Each structure stands twice: as structure tokens, then as C-alpha cells.
């Protein structure tokens, strides 16, 4: 097929294939430069190329034109700021406005290129601020914002206030697309429209290398990122050094985005801005047709630097995913700290009016410190972030140390039983090392060794209620009188038990004939990994009982702040309970048979019952006996007794929030005058009895 129709779905792909085929054929005759130019410098049907000298431009245009002409492509409508270049182009192949222009005397006109206005005579970019008036509605605001096409983000901070107004208008559910916006949106919108005219005075040099610049000896890419409550953004600058020691800084690309509607913390926005900086740098390194020697990333957020430099702490999913992107495309040695006043991305994150932007040299020219020697800024690091020997960098956190190590140890376990066993192992190991004797670390543990796991509770109490513990230690024996009334445990009249140094509830039940744990339960915070493990362990031990039953059982040893909410949260995440509580699926009943819906005399339609159902029941009963045959009589009675004990232990009343009240009444207390769920006996079990755990 030699001819293809225009406008088909496959037309863009076919045109691109033909262009690349022409580049492949031009490789042998015209060299790799022509091939690379054809493959990388065409944007749809526009050819954009910049070269260092006029001689190179003349030669490249001649070869590219000949190579494409040989494959059926004719380049036309040439535009260049070099008059020598334009004179070498036939008049019919120049741009329409240049065909009637006297290249010796007339001034070259302004050309539009990808949303920008290119002043050919002076070789700089500018913007056109003459927009058609639009109604003051959501649709009109959206149309005006989209009319300013800023591909390279030169005026991205100026567009940020308009985008914020558009977001606020869209969030207002009372406004439709064609409703006039109220005064609270109209006033800032008119102010922004008034500043729009100043953009026409903006002049951005097209070439990032000054004319008087010498031979480039160093090329660096500097990325800046920042975030605020209003938005986040990034800016890319190229730093050139010549053989005479002169330095040139130029803005390449800017990005500015509004904050998401969902509330997000500033550190997370700063991390998101750093990811934008990484992606922007990768795009520039791919598209920039000059060799970049070094790439540096600058941020004024020490939190982001801590995230990047820390190789020891586990982060939440949001942070971990973005830190991974940063580490995949950059090294720790590439990141630098910059003060907020010297960070040009601060403008992109907050937005400015056009007049403020025109007066701000830091946005277009970059920070002043980049124009100085590299020794003054190359090793800048924030306070609290240090580099150790070698290439690995670490972030120093105030909480790093013994406390952080204990937190990691406690959070490692997802079961209270396993955590108690682990604490018992460490407790035995410390005892062996302290006494300098030889003994086995593993093996059976005594009840006293398992009770050593309560040290984890003591650690959580000291960490969460540090002020309360400190005041109680100073006022030993006063039992909570020195606490502030705003404390979450003030009403519990807490005291520190001299036996185990645990924080316990005082109450008025010290003379009651109940266990010591019920008299003075241990205080636990609401939000704690240990608290979650204890609630989950109790819930599973009670065969996934309900919330009130779990709360009553917990109150025998622990007093959890806001017990009801904590237990409800854990039970809602229980997979087994969610499966059990799901509604049973009911099958839709079939239509009634014909005999039952047609009027007829009595006993017209009858049916004889057979004994199939009886035989089926016997078969099912036989299967049930075979399945139950795995348990002998003693085991079966034990199972039923445990089920009976759990059911009878379910409280008949709600659990009180007052430390002065007794435990709620249960059927077991009425029948046998005590709690029915009996804990395992203390001491060391015989090895022959350990098979019971595997059996059950």
C-alpha cells in the first residue's frame, strides 16, 4: 500500500513509523547526528533544534532537509533568530511572515511555539496575557486557567493561586458549573486577573548559556523542592562553569501543584515534593541533549532528609513507597540541605502575584549561593544528620537508643503468648550471664519466668505515663494526690506497686475477698501494641466472645484507658469474628408448583411420604459418629465442660468504668460462687503432658 488516508486511527503511528524509517535510511549517508536529530527533535510535525554555532546549524539543516526529502518529507516554514541561517533557506520554505520580510533591515516578528511566545529578534520567551473575558463561574475559571499553557512551568507559581481558587469553588457543593461565584471567591479571582497583565513584561532568555560564556568545563543539575499548606512544587536549575571561572545559573523547568483535598501533614507533602523533584530530574536527564556531570537535590525539610538517610527504621506505607522511589534514582550523597529563604521552590509551593514574581530574581536566576565556589555549599548538611565513614548515611533521631530498640522488640511480635515467651527467654539469659553459670536457655518455663513479661507492661507505662510515674515516684505513698487533674488516669487514683513497680488502680476494694489483680488492676494506655496484643489474646482465649465478655475478663488484671473503644477496635479487625458475624445467605424460594396454585377440590392432589428422609438422617448420623469418634468420652466431656465454663462466664451486666465497682455478675458466680474460667496451674509441666497442646 503506497498511500494512507488522513485522519485514521492509525495515521499518527504510521507517520511516526515513516519518519523513523527515514532516519534509519539517513544513517549511512548523512551520519548518526542526522539520524539522532530526526528521531528526537520532532514534536508531531514541528522540528525544534538548537546547536552551538551557525556553521553547525547550516550544515545540519542542509543534511536533514536532504535526508527527509529523499523519503518524501519536505521541511518548510523555517524560523530562526539567526539571519544568516534564514538567508540560506529558500524564500518559499521560510515562515509565512518571513517571506515578505527584509532580512537586512526589518525586525523579526514574534513566533508562538508550544504555548510560549518566542521573540525571534532578541531570542527570549514571553507570555501573552490577553485572554478573552470569561464569566465568573466555575466553567469560566476553569477555561481561563487552562488558557495559560505553561509547558516548562516558568510561571507555575503565578498559576497556583488560580488553581487554589478553582479547587475551592469545586469543593463548594452549592455551586453549579454555570452559577456565579460568591464574593469570597470573586474578590481574589479579580485580583488575580488584574495581575495577569503584568506577565506580558516577562522576558526569559531562550539560551541557558550566555553569549559571552567561554568553554563549558562543568555542567550541574540542581533540583529544589518544598511544600506548604497551600501547595508543593519543585524547580530545576542548570549550573554551568567555563574555563575562565565564570558561573551561569538558569531555570529549566518549574512545577507547582495545589495540596490534595484530603488533609495531609507538611512532612508528607515535603516528601511528595521530593518525589516530584526526582521524577523531574529523570525527565530532564533523559531529554536534555547535553552531558550533565553531577545532579544535586536540595530541600529545606530535615524530616525528608531523615527519611532518606535512615536505613534502620521501618516507615509507614506512604513514606516507605516514596522513600523507595527516591533511593532508586538518587544517592544519599546527592541530597543537600538549604535554608527556606534560599530555596526557590518555596515560591512554587506558596504562589506569588506576577509583580512579586518579576521582582524575585531567585526564581529565574536560582539561589545566590550556587554562584559561589562549590566548597561553600557542596557539603551542607542539616543539624542532626551526620555522615559516617564510608558511603552510608544515617539520620540521628532523638528517640534512637535503648527505648527505640525495646519498641522494635515489642512490635516484632504479633502474639501476647509469643512475646511473653520471648521476654522469658531474655530474662533467663540475663540471669545466666549475671550468675556466670551454665544452663539451657530453652526448655520449660516456670510461671514466675512467664510473669516476667509484665516488665513489658512496666515499660509501656513508663513511656506513656512518664509524667505521672515521675510525680508518683517523688510523692511515694501519697497515691495519686500529686497528679494534675487533666491527666487521663487522675480519676483512677493510681499508685506504684512496691512489689513489681507497676502502675495500678487504687480504688476502694482493697479489703474485698477477690484476687489482687481485681483489686488493683494494671493500667494500660489505649493506643499501644502491648494493649492490642493483650486484648487479642483474651478474646481468643474466650473463644472469640463478645465485647462485654472480653472487657469483663480483662478487668480481672488490666485497666485499659477507654476500654470499650479499645476492645471494639480490636474485635472489628478479628477475621474469625467477621466471618461468623456475616449474615447467612438465604436462597431465593422457587415458584410454587402448579398443583398448589390452581383451585381444586380437597384431596385432589396428594403425596405419599416415604422413609428416604429417615434413611438419610441415619446416614448423616453415622458420618457424625465417625467424625466425633476422634474424641474419647473423657476428651468429649472436657470439651463440653470448657464450652460450658466460657458460656457461664459471660457477664450478665455491663462492665463499669469506675474503679470502685466490683466485677459484673456472671452465671458462674451464681452457680458456683466463683469465676468459671480457671487458669492453668503454676509450676513446671511434665514432658508427657505436653502432647495435649498438639492434640487440641
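Sequence proposed for the structure above (696 residues):
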Amino acid at each position: 500500500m503506497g498511500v494512507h488516508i488522513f485522519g485514521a486511527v492509525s495515521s499518527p503511528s504510521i507517520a511516526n513509523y515513516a519518519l523513523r524509517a527515514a532516519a534509519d535510511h539517513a544513517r549511512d549517508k548523512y551520519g548518526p547526528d542526522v539520524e539522532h536529530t530526526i528521531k528526537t527533535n520532532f514534536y508531531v510535525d514541528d522540528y525544534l533544534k538548537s546547536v552551538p554555532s551557525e556553521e553547525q546549524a547550516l550544515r545540519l539543516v542542509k543534511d536533514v532537509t536532504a535526508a527527509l526529502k529523499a523519503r518524501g518529507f519536505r521541511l518548510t516554514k523555517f524560523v530562526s533568530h539567526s539571519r544568516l541561517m534564514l538567508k540560506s533557506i529558500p524564500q518559499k520554505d521560510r515562515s509565512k511572515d518571513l517571506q515578505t520580510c527584509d532580512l537586512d533591515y526589518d525586525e523579526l516578528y514574534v513566533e508562538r511555539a508550544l504555548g510560549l511566545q518566542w521573540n525571534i529578534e532578541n531570542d527570549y520567551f514571553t507570555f501573552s496575557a490577553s485572554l478573552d473575558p470569561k464569566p465568573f463561574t466555575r466553567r469560566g475559571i476553569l477555561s481561563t486557567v487552562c488558557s495559560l499553557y505553561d509547558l516548562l512551568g516558568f510561571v507555575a507559581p503565578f498559576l497556583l493561586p488560580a488553581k487554589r481558587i478553582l479547587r475551592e469553588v469545586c469543593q463548594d457543593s452549592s455551586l453549579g458549573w454555570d452559577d456565579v461565584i460568591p464574593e469570597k471567591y470573586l474578590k481574589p479571582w479579580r485580583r488575580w486577573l488584574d495581575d495577569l497583565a503584568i506577565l506580558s513584561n516577562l522576558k526569559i532568555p531562550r539560551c541557558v548559556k550566555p553569549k559571552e560564556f567561554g568553554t563549558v568545563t562543568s555542567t550541574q543539575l540542581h533540583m529544589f523542592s518544598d511544600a506548604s499548606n497551600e501547595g508543593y512544587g519543585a524547580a530545576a536549575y542548570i549550573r554551568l562553569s567555563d574555563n575562565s571561572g565564570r558561573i551561569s545559573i538558569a531555570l529549566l523547568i518549574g512545577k507547582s501543584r495545589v495540596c490534595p483535598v484530603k488533609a495531609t501533614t507538611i512532612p508528607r507533602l515535603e516528601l511528595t515534593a521530593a518525589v516530584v523533584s526526582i521524577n523531574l530530574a529523570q525527565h530532564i536527564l533523559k531529554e536534555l541533549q547535553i552531558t550533565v556531570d553531577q545532579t544535586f537535590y536540595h530541600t529545606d525539610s530535615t524530616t525528608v532528609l531523615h527519611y532518606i538517610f535512615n536505613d534502620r527504621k521501618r516507615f509507614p506505607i506512604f513514606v516507605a513507597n516514596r522513600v523507595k522511589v527516591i533511593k532508586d534514582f538518587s544517592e544519599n550523597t546527592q541530597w543537600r540541605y538549604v535554608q527556606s529563604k534560599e530555596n526557590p521552590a518555596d515560591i512554587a509551593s506558596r504562589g506569588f502575584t506576577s509583580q512579586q514574581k518579576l521582582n524575585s530574581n531567585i526564581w529565574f536566576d536560582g539561589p545566590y549561593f550556587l554562584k559561589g565556589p562549590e566548597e561553600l555549599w557542596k557539603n551542607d548538611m542539616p543539624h542532626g544528620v551526620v555522615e559516617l565513614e564510608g558511603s552510608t548515611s544515617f539520620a540521628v533521631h532523638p528517640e534512637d537508643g535503648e527505648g527505640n530498640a525495646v519498641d522494635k522488640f515489642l512490635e516484632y511480635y504479633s502474639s501476647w503468648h509469643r512475646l511473653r515467651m520471648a521476654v522469658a527467654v531474655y530474662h533467663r539469659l540475663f540471669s545466666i550471664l549475671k550468675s556466670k553459670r551454665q544452663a539451657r536457655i530453652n526448655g520449660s518455663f516456670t510461671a514466675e519466668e512467664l510473669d516476667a513479661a509484665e516488665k513489658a507492661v512496666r515499660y509501656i507505662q513508663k513511656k506513656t505515663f512518664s509524667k505521672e510515674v515521675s510525680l508518683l515516684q517523688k510523692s511515694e505513698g501519697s497515691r495519686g494526690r500529686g497528679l494534675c487533674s487533666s491527666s487521663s488516669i487522675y480519676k483512677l487514683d493510681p499508685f506504684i506497686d512496691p512489689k513489681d513497680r507497676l502502675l495500678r488502680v487504687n480504688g476502694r476494694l482493697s479489703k474485698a475477698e477477690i484476687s489482687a489483680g481485681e483489686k488493683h488492676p494494671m493500667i494500660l494506655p489505649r493506643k499501644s501494641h502491648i494493649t492490642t496484643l493483650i486484648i487479642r489474646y483474651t478474646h481468643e482465649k474466650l473463644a472469640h466472645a463478645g465485647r462485654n465478655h472480653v472487657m469483663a475478663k480483662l478487668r480481672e488484671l488490666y485497666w485499659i484507658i477507654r476500654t470499650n473503644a479499645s476492645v471494639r477496635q480490636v474485635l472489628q479487625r478479628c477475621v474469625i469474628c467477621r466471618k461468623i458475624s456475616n449474615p447467612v445467605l438465604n436462597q431465593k424460594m422457587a415458584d410454587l408448583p402448579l398443583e398448589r396454585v390452581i383451585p381444586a377440590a380437597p384431596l385432589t392432589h396428594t403425596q405419599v411420604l416415604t422413609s428416604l428422609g429417615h434413611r438419610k438422617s441415619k446416614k448423616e448420623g453415622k458420618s457424625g459418629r465417625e467424625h466425633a469418634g476422634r474424641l474419647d468420652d473423657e476428651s468429649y466431656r472436657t470439651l463440653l465442660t470448657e464450652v460450658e465454663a466460657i458460656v457461664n462466664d459471660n457477664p450478665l451486666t455491663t462492665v463499669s468504668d469506675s474503679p470502685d465497682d466490683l466485677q459484673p455478675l456472671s452465671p458462674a458466680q451464681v452457680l458456683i460462687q466463683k469465676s468459671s474460667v480457671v487458669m492453668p496451674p503454676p509450676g513446671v509441666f511434665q514432658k508427657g503432658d505436653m502432647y495435649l497442646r498438639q492434640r487440641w
